[in-house]
Every structure is written in C-alpha cells, then in structure tokens.
C-alpha cells in the first residue's frame, strides 16, 4: 500500500482503503486529544480529497472530517 497517496500507478481500491484509514485516524486522534496526530491525519486525508476528486467515489465522512477541521481551526484560533 502506498501511504501517503501517489498518482501513478493508481489503484482505486488501495486509495479508498488508505483514505478510510486516515479518516479513522482523524476521529481517533480527536478522541485521544492528540492534536499533533490530528493535524497530520487531516493533512493527508485532505490530499486524498483534493488529489483524487473525480477518481474516487465521494467519501461519506468527508463533510464530517472537514467540519471537524474547521472547528479545530476556530477553537485554537488558527
């Protein structure tokens, strides 16, 4: 598995699985209040959202992840 994402060669199943792993990492890091891991996971999962838009099916968790990130930015005045 290629984590973080690579464009070539593109394996859709692998990219979906990796995106799901990072989405779960976002939620887990929030549960653990580990904001450094949260920032790292957000950075990678946003890459999947942006880089593979149109190549992967839309994630059901994308809006929740982006919403959490926006709340994080607001709460920490970033």
What does this structure look like?
With 78 residues, the chain is mainly alpha-helical. It has one domain. It has three helices and no strands. The longest helix is centred in the first third of the chain and has 20 residues. The radius of gyration is 13 Å and the shape is elongated. The model has no long low-confidence stretch (mean pLDDT 90).
Write the layout of secondary structure elements.
Layout: H1 12-31, H2 35-51, H3 62-75
Feature tags:
78 residues; 3 helices; 65% helix
Structural class: mainly alpha
Number of structural units classed as domains: 1
What is the helix content? 55-70%
Number of strands: 0
Encode the helix/strand succession as letters: HHH
Distance between the termini: 33 Å
Oligomer: single chain
Q: How many helix segments?
A: 3
The coarse silhouette is elongated
Task: Write a brief caption for the model.
The chain has helices at 12-31, 35-51, 62-75. By secondary structure, it is an all-alpha fold. The mean pLDDT is 90.
């Amino acid at each position: 598995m290629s984590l973080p994402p690579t464009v070539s060669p593109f394996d859709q199943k692998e990219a979906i699985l990796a995106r799901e792993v990072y989405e779960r990492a976002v939620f887990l890091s929030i549960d653990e209040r580990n904001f450094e891991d949260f920032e790292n996971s957000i950075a990678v999962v946003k890459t999947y959202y942006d880089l593979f838009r149109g190549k992967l099916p839309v994630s059901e968790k994308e809006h929740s992840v982006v919403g959490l990130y926006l709340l994080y930015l607001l709460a920490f005045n970033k």
